Amino acid sequence: HSLEVASVGMSLGNDIARYLCTKNHGFISTLIPETGQIVATACLAHDLGNPPFGHSGEKAIQTFFSEGRGLYLKEQVSEAFWNDITRFDGNANAFRLLTHSFKGRRQGGFAMTYSTLASIVKYPFPSAVATKKKFGFFTSERQAYETVARHLGIIQTDDSHWVRYPLVYLVEAADDICYEIMDLEDAYKLKILTYDETVDLMLSFFDETAKSRIRQRINVEELSDPNEKVQYLRACLIGLLENECAQAFITHEDDILAGRFEGALIDHISPVPCAAYQRCVKLSRARIYKSQPVLDVELSGYRIMATLMELMVEAIEHPDRYYSQQLIGRVSSQYDIQNPNLENRLMAVIDYISGMTDVYALDVYQKICGISLPII
Q1: Residue 373 burial by CB count (10 A; 0-12/13-18/19+): exposed, middle or buried?
Q2: Shortest CA distance to 126 belongs to which of 113, 109, 143?
Q3: What is the distance between the alpha carbons of residues 112 and 129, in angstroms, rounded to a whole number?
Q4: Which letter does DSSP use for residue 157 in this model?
Q5: Contact 205, 277 (CB under 8 A)
Q6: Contact (Cβ atoms closer than 8 angstroms) between residue 234 and residue 180
Q7: How many Cβ atoms are within 10 Å of 353's Cβ, its own excluded?
Q8: Torsion of CA 92, 98, 99, 101, to 10 degrees
Q9: Element (H, E) at 162
Q10: pLDDT score, position 103
Q11: Separation CA 23–CA 17 (nearest Å)
Q12: Blockwise average pLDDT, block size 10, the chain, 376 residues
């Protein structure tokens, strides 16, 4: 997914760079042509902080503290830290992974450019002021974001809010395009959508002239395979939406730079593709994201994550116990799991678990629960 988003992001960034160079008759910073690379790099990193099992994993971490066995810790940590962990968000975690100096690692984390870091912060405010549970950085990384914002001249609207960095809109657009359109193709492959439904949805983005041209192309002999036809439609559709989002950025450039722009670029594209996109969003929510295979993975993932959180937090709370020592011994040395400060230990647990892949989380879960033994 991140590779797909990075490819679209590169195209969006390059289109905007060409526009800016043309607009300014070539008299522009030598860094402007690098816009595509900046956006593509941010796209590669945008999901880096997502825990195993996606939103289900996020919810498992949040509810472990807000309504699960970790609720007792509320009185032992600061209010700001409690807000962070009960609203744990992959977006904020990505910024942490890129900027945090993990144990034994160099200062500055990945030492990325300020423009790249700013481009992944979709919600430029801390958890304490988040109204919809989405936020951009944990309390521990607030100073890092403030440094980025100060050097880039990002407008601060009050003590805890900044406007979005302009390139965020391009990263978000690339993600919106790939997330929705790739899901349609995946749903077809999984037989959640029929071939006719998929083609109808994809063609609905185009005007009649484009529809006629695409139909002619997919009905020729060399595209007799339905899978190839859907792939071709997907490519056409991504190209259309990339152009639409680039044009939306150009049209609203002044508002974006001034921090007045509202919503996402995908919300400001032409009426026909915009209506088709919203139709796909509604269908995805009703039939794809609530299909039995998806729900089964989410249910299993939630239980796996909840169990890992429970066992690891108990281990750092009682490190003198034999089982606790065994669990702590599995954790990579870059995570400060034995820090004397409780908040730092809890964050180390979250860092460790949220950094797992789905398969690795399942493997660890099976082993520490005695379901799977590597020697048998």
Answers
A1: exposed
A2: 143
A3: 27
A4: E
A5: yes
A6: no
A7: 24
A8: 120
A9: strand 161-162
A10: 83
A11: 10
A12: 93 92 64 89 94 92 94 95 95 94 81 94 94 90 96 95 96 94 89 91 94 84 79 93 97 94 96 95 84 82 95 94 93 92 96 95 92 70
Provide the pLDDT for residue 30. Answer: 64
d(CA 32, CA 22): 11
DSSP 214-243: HHHHHTSGGG-SHHHHHHHHHHHHHHHHHH
pTM recorded for the entire structure: 0.91
Q: Residue 182's closest CA among 174, 15, 196?
A: 174
| pLDDT value, residue 28 | 53
Place of tokens 């481009």: 119
Please give the pLDDT value at position 132. Answer: 78
Q: Which two tokens stand for residue 154?
A: 């990002």
C-alpha 75: how far from chain center = 31
C-beta neighbour count of 108 within 10 angstroms: 12
The Cα 305–Cα 356 span in angstroms is 10
Question: Which of 37, 145, 53 is CA-nearest to residue 90?
Answer: 53
